[in-house]
Amino acid sequence: MSRSRKIFAVFLVSAVAACIALILYLRWRPIDTHPDSTYLLLLQEAYAAVLKNYVEKPDSKKLVQSMVDGMLATLDPHSAYLPPEPYHEMEVQMTGAFGGVGIELGIKDDKLTVIAPIEDTPAFRAGIQSNDHIWKIDNSLTRGMNISAAVKRMRGEKGKTVTLTILRNGSPKPLVFNLIRDIIKLKSLKSRQLAEGYGFIRISQFQEQTGPEFKQALHDLNSAAGGRMKGLVIDLRYNPGGLLESSVEVANCFIGDDINKTAIVSIKGRGEHSRVYNATLGEKEPRYPIVVLINGGSASASEIVAGALQDHKRAIVMGKQSFGKGSVQSVFPMRGDAALKLTTALYYTPNGRSIQAKGIVPDVDVPNIVPLPVKEKEKDFKEKDLERSLASDGKPEPSQPRPLPPVSPHGGAARDTDLQKDYQLKRALELLQSLGMLKEKGF
User: Does the annotation count 392 as an active-site position?
Assistant: First the structure.
């Protein structure tokens, strides 16, 4: 064989060997360019192995649901798989009625935690508080239990009992609450007058009809004040949140004008899950003073309202720092009447502040002090209180009838005793009245 032929043969053998090596490499190398496909194949192989080889024939449906639960457990605590019953209950809750004990739940420091008890429910009346750690539901420990599973255990027929064992800061031992389940009918808001010209609106949760109901309450309060409302308290304490769109509707009553687009809240996620919610153009409420009350049970949508009014300098925020739930959950319907609730974005106040894990810091920090009862002998005693005392003009002081309490626009009288029992509310009214006095005096 000639020298040239030998060189060509060696080259050919080398080329064939290189091609074989390349084919083997492409066949057996990890699929780095498509890692998701590899992971899905791993999941499929594990599922097939369990289904074929486990000592007892497993329930395929439970296996798949457990895989989904395990996947979501690696995400944040607000992302969850909702089987048909919890999914339906969530939809019902947003319309204003559901069965249970009345607790908004969250996960804090890997513990099942009460965000807020819902007003006028079995949990609220029993004395369950924001930030209580639910240690047990009946005899089941909640360690590792997700929110959906906890909700399912606490829901049930009206009249049936569920026992919650609570760990509370400051309590030397666990607290046990035997709660009787009830049909929880949520009233989105209540309104009344605190004093002449000073309105009060308490929003317990942001539901589908909260926006229209809030506008109607404003109209009624303005009418009761003869069209000249002097101030307003918006009470968002223990409001766990609700529908984002409804919170935007409430803030929209006070923010914006006829010309400029004004941001109420922005949400930032991936792709289509980023958006800015602007105030609509048009007539707004007159610029009377507003105080927004918040506390550690104020979360999510209630923080949106407080943050928007605070950033736009439209209200003074008073109370204690809010819960700090600044994430947006989107619901994706799945087959079998189930759904995925996924955290898809974080929301930000108009000034770009993230609320997540920080909350809204009030402008005026006011604890909820329970005032001591005032004894008769401790009341201020003045000259005018003496029998047959003289007025400033030297004539006997005529006896004055007790003034009637202000009337609520929705019927009934405003309860003065509420102001005596509710220190934060009393401070809010005093602040509004002080601002009104300064305005009248030209300051």
Answer: no
Residue 354 and residue 237 share a domain = yes
Domain interval for residue 156: 97-185
Do 228 and 200 share a domain, yes or no?
yes
Q: Are residues 69 and 108 in the same domain?
A: no
- Distance from chain centroid for Cα 180: 24
Q: Are residue 169 and residue 196 in the same domain, yes or no?
A: no
Chain centroid to Cα 150, Å, comes to 18
Q: Looking at residue 192, what is its pLDDT?
A: 95
Q: Mean pLDDT: which of 112-116, 362-366, 372-376 is highest?
A: 362-366
380 has a pLDDT exceeding 60: no
CA distance 92 to 80: 18
90 part of a folded domain:
no
Among residues 170, 185, 200, which one ends one of the domains? 185
Q: Do 178 and 143 sit in the same domain of this protein? A: yes
Q: What is the tens place of the pLDDT at every residue in 382-396?
A: 334 434 444 444 445
Q: Give yes or no for a contact between 314 and 254, defined as CB atoms under 8 angstroms apart.
A: yes
Given the residues 182, 220, 235, 311, the one annotated as active site: 311
Catalytic hit among 300, 302, 322, 408: 300
* Structural domain includes residue 260: yes
47: enclosing H helix or E strand: helix 35-53
Tell me the CATH number at 353. Answer: 3.90.226.10
Whether residue 168 has pLDDT greater than 60: yes
Give the residue-averaged pLDDT of 408-428. Answer: 65
Q: What pLDDT does 438 receive?
A: 86
Annotation says 62 is catalytic = no
**Marked catalytic residue, from 230, 320, 325, 341:** 325
Strands (E) across 247-404 are located at 262-269, 275-279, 290-294, 316-319, 327-334, 338-348, 364-365
| Chain mean pLDDT for the chain | 83
Token pair for 353: 């502040």
CATH code of residue 181: 2.30.42.10
Do 231 and 315 lie in one domain? The reply is yes
Instruction: Tell me which residue of 356, 262, 245, 266 sits closest to 314, measured CA to CA.
Output: 262
Residue partners of 317: CB distance under 8 A and separation at least 6: 291, 292, 294, 306, 309, 310, 360, 362, 363, 364
* Helices and strands, number each (H, E), in the chain: 11, 19
Annotation marks residue 300 as catalytic: yes
Instruction: For residues 41 and 175, state if they share a domain.
Output: no
CA pair distance 153, 169, nearest whole angstrom:
24
* Domain-located, residue 9: no
Q: Does 360 lie in the same domain as 299?
A: yes
Q: Could you give the CA distance from residue 362 to residue 343 in angstroms, rounded to a whole number?
A: 26
Assigned domain for 267 exists: yes
Query: Mean pLDDT, to the nearest integer, of 366-371?
Result: 78
